[in-house]
């Protein structure tokens, strides 16, 4: 889990818009395994350890379904501590009759679901980083069938919700123009490219993780940004290391014409596809 510690820049919290807060709370507690950290009339913050906010769900006063292709959330990804934890959640999903997709990416083993509003969720476990293959500065990743029986053999049958040291492993975004997104995240925020899939997808990270952020145009090339009241991504937060990094980021963002707005605990910006990014010290 050192990839999700300072001095790396990584996702700490994802905030999504939903159409029915109570329905979403039931789903995220009973199916995914979160706990409620804080709840208001139309907003709830979810946690796995009782202290740290990983996911925030908001029901806008005026809510609209997402219609057609837009930019925004492709999925957010919850990183489990071990393969055993992955086995246990697979058993839990089977018991709840929850449909999920599954893929082996070589660096990780992953499950894919959608919440009641169609927000994409990945739940995954990393393989040991010593097993990852690097070709110069590019990490080898594939999408192959997942060997679920092999994973289930490591389970212990215990499910008590998401383990306390689960983290927000990464976020995957739908963008309208990959070149514009690359400039924003590489030149503006200082990420490194670790995998490139032609002209349609880009995986980026800090500290040689396989990816803290994924970017693609698979279903969103030249698409408009998500509407303010449409269900989907509201914002996501990245951890800042120190004031020096923040100052450098602000200067680089302004140099490429990206907005910089001061907020409590850090600052806010927006990528060219309209995805709101919060840069926070905590």
TrEMBL record:
Protein's recorded name: Glyoxalase
Domain VOC: 10-126, 167-282
Species assigned in the record: Lysinibacillus macroides
Gene Ontology molecular function: lactoylglutathione lyase activity; metal ion binding
Keyword terms of this UniProt record: Metal-binding
Any single Pfam family the record assigns to this protein: Glyoxalase
Chloroplast as UniProt keyword: no
InterPro entries, alphabetized: Glyas_Bleomycin-R_OHBP_Dase, Glyas_Fos-R_dOase_dom, Glyoxalase_1_CS, VOC_core
Keyword Repeat part of the UniProt annotation: no
